[in-house]
Design brief:
Protein name: Fibronectin-binding A domain protein
Number of strands: 19
GO molecular function: ribosomal large subunit binding; tRNA binding
GO biological process, one term: rescue of stalled ribosome
Number of helices: 12
CATH architecture of the largest domain: Roll
Strand order of the largest sheet: 12-13-15-14-16-19
Distance between the termini: 49 Å
Keywords: Coiled coil
Helix content: 25-40%
InterPro entries: NFACT_RNA-bd, RQC_Subunit_NEMF
CATH superfamily of the largest domain: ibrinogen binding protein from staphylococcus aureus domain
Length: 506
């Protein structure tokens, strides 16, 4: 969301103080505040697409994460304030607390809707952080940390034009600059999508340079955008349900597409094997001729020109100078035998592989249309060909499956395919494997964690060393930064185990 869109949602809230009726949680990355009057305030706070909306009967259930439990317990009472910092993507909600057998003191909830850095942070009235959905450590940002006990710091100050109070002359800094880019850089609350919308309402091209005669139309367009920042030139942003469906569908389709490519390559191999059957007859004939004329051929020759007694025509045969004529003949016999075996296998396997490929293509089309409940069920009950993938698959003490990546691509695939409740591990500070403990949110015993940590240390640059630190966290706290190479990730809320980098007993 962009600043003006957030401001429009806050304007639609009833007058404060506003009674509230508690929290509901439809997902690990969504919270719903039930408001008096029947409307719900929906906060989608996980990167990269945070969202703040008002909805009717948004649904949801009990808390799903430790932070959600803290939020439900501490953000209580009437909503006293809902304030946006300028038109930035930061909103502060203040709750009045409750009196009872155990008083709940007033708190503030800071919602940072800043794309990949989105976060939901609970503080006391002095700004001291009580908890956050995503902790920010000094390793991630040495200038601005988000951890319990620290004081929340707002984003750095900036100076931009406020579109709510613009006069025509205020827009002169845009002259001579590409319209959409100039709006984003100069006008508060405007991002790329609203800049394109403003250009559309002004009847201008987003990429053209701003001229003096454009300023009146542009000012009127910005005024309408302040009143109604609804986008008209593109589809509305996907809802949390659509985003969840896309996220669940992606690993299922990725596994099926990988299997499809494997089957297609196999069919290509079978076609080549059938084409090589004609060569097998020629290689067999070369072997026969070399044995028949072996006593006439000199040693260490790289070529032989022999007369084929069936056709009467001369035949030129390439030889390995390091082998004798009879050994060269044996080499051609082996090549002919292998080619016949491959062709025979291709004849037998190709029809079955084609049938499997056709069924797989039908399955891909089915998965593309599956609704959310069915996608969730599919991910819980992965079929064998869907679950199979790259990397080592081992069984740890306690019965947990452990995945180990062996290169960048496998690391990337395993981490993307893991469940949000799986445990992710990596040797600290050195190149190495991503290791996944397939926990799916279940408690993992220390014995299992140590087993997986030794695997992470052993499959890293620290192999053979003693007392190697291995970080571990839940997979939902691991993400690949925009533009990063496969296998390069950032992570938060990690703990560290120290193990010897030796292969554990399997």
């Amino acid at each position: 969301m962009e600043g003006l869109q957030i401001a429009a949602v806050l304007r639609a809230l009833p007058e404060r103080p506003l009674p509230t009726k508690g929290w509901r949680f439809p997902a690990e990355d969504a919270a719903v505040l039930a408001l008096a009057g029947g409307r719900d305030l929906v906060l989608r706070y996980r990167p990269p697409s945070p969202e703040l909306t008002l909805a009717e009967n948004a649904g949801g259930g009990p808390p799903r994460t430790p932070f959600q439990k803290l939020l439900a317990a501490r953000a209580r009472g009437p909503l006293l304030r809902a304030e946006q910092l300028k038109l930035d993507r930061v909103v502060i909600f203040e709750f009045g607390g409750e009196e009872g057998f155990v008083d709940v003191p007033p708190v503030r909830l800071v919602f940072e809707l800043t794309s990949r850095n989105a976060n939901l942070i609970l503080t006391d009235l002095e700004g001291r952080i009580l908890g956050a959905d995503r902790a920010v450590t000094p390793e991630q940002n040495r200038y601005r940390q988000v951890r319990p006990g620290l004081v929340w710091a707002p984003p750095p100050p900036y100076e931009k034009l406020d579109p709510r109070t613009l006069e025509e002359g205020d827009l002169e800094p845009l002259l001579g600059r590409p319209l959409a880019r100039a709006l984003v850089q100069t006008v508060d609350g405007i991002g790329p999508r609203l800049a394109a919308e403003a250009a559309h309402r002004a009847g201008l091209e987003p990429d053209r340079s701003v001229r003096p005669e454009d300023l009146p139309r542009l000012r009127r367009a910005l005024a309408t955008l302040v009143d109604d920042p609804t986008l008209s030139r593109e589809a509305p942003a996907p809802s949390w349900r659509e985003e969840t469906e896309a996220a669940l569908r992606k690993p299922l389709l990725a596994a099926l597409e990988r299997r499809k490519k494997t089957l297609q390559r196999r069919l290509e191999d079978y076609a080549r094997a059938r084409a090589d059957l004609a060569k097998a007859e020629r290689w067999q004939r070369y072997g026969d001729l070399l044995l028949a004329y072996a006593h006439q051929l000199p040693d260490r020759s790289d070529r032989a020109r022999l007369e084929d007694w069936e056709s009467g025509e001369p035949v030129e045969i390439a030889l390995d100078p390091a082998l004798s004529p009879s050994e060269n003949a044996e080499r051609y016999y082996r090549r002919a035998k292998r080619a016949r075996a491959r062709a025979k296998r291709a004849e037998h396997e190709a029809p079955r592989t084609r049938q499997e490929l056709e069924a797989l293509e039908r399955e891909i089309e089915t998965v593309r249309r599956l609704p959310l409940p069915e996608l969730q069920r599919r991910l819980r009950e992965r079929r064998p060909h869907e679950a199979a993938g790259p990397g080592l698959r081992l069984e740890a003490p306690g019965g947990f499956e452990v995945w180990v990546g062996r290169n960048r691509k496998e690391n990337d695939w395993l981490t993307r395919s893991a469940h949000s409740g799986d445990v992710w591990m990596h040797a600290q500070g050195v190149p190495g494997s991503h290791v996944i403990v397939r926990a799916r949110g279940k408690p993992v015993p220390l014995e299992t964690l140590l087993f997986a940590a030794r695997l992470a240390a052993y499959h890293s640059r620290a192999r053979g060393e003693k007392n190697v630190p291995v970080d571990y966290t839940l997979k939902k706290h691991v993400w690949r930064p925009k533009g990063a190479a496969p296998g390069e990730v950032l992570y938060t809320q990690a703990k560290t185990l120290f193990v010897d980098a030796e292969a554990p007993e399997i």
